[in-house]
Amino acid sequence: MAATFHLDILAASVPFYRGDCVSLVIPTQDGEIGVLAGHCNAAGAVCAGELRFGAEGEPRRAAVAPGLFKIDGQRVLVLVDAAERPEDIDVNRALRAREEAEEQLRQKRSMAEYQLAQGNLARALNRLRVSGRM
Ligand code: ATP
To answer: What's the rounded Cα separation, in Å, for the pair 72 and 60?
Structure first.
């Protein structure tokens, strides 16, 4: 039997998954980080992307918004602003969010507003990707 570690995924402080896990893939700005039991301790930033984790049976997938992760011994904590299973993603809402963000990016705005719109666009595109609409 494959070695397991304890995984806690919190989406805006609400438990999204809590339990044993065999493998985890975390999206980061530098690419994906794969985690198996016995991984060295580490911490870093999660970016908008697809999180994959597996215990028994089928690997699970989730669209996640940015956040943080911490690997500490046999415990891994993933703390993100939002997480959705592919089947829970409201595609029309994500399409609307993409349109709004693209419109915001077209307008001449401050750097702060531009970066906010970029974040909105990244989350919308990620939801569309994970839901299979892109
Ligand atoms: P929107 O502008 O549509 O609210 P957003 O990117 O600003 O999108 P977030 O701040 O990332 O939304 O998330 C707020 C809450 O709404 C979270 O609980 C998140 O899971 C949920 N959420 C956002 N967009 C979707 C979607 N397309 N489908 C399902 N849940 C969504």
So the answer is: 22
Per-block mean pLDDT, blocks of 10 residues, the chain (134 long):
93 95 97 96 98 87 98 96 98 98 91 95 98 86
From 80, 102, 103, 123, the mutation candidate for ligand 1 (largest count of ligand atoms within 8 A of CB) is: 123
The whole-angstrom separation of Cα 30 and Cα 47 is 9
Quote the Cα angle for 28-94-120, to 5°: 50
Other C-beta atoms lying within 10 Å of the C-beta of residue 123: 22
Give CA–CA dist 44/71, Å, rounded: 9
Q: Are strands 60-64 and 83-84 parallel, antiparallel or unpaired?
A: antiparallel
Q: Which of 85, 93, 95, 116 to probe ligand 1 with, by most ligand atoms within 8 A of CB?
A: 93
This prediction has a pTM of 0.94
Which residues does 26 contact at the CB level (< 8 Å), separation at least 6?
A: 32, 33, 35, 46, 51, 69, 78
Amino acid at 111: M
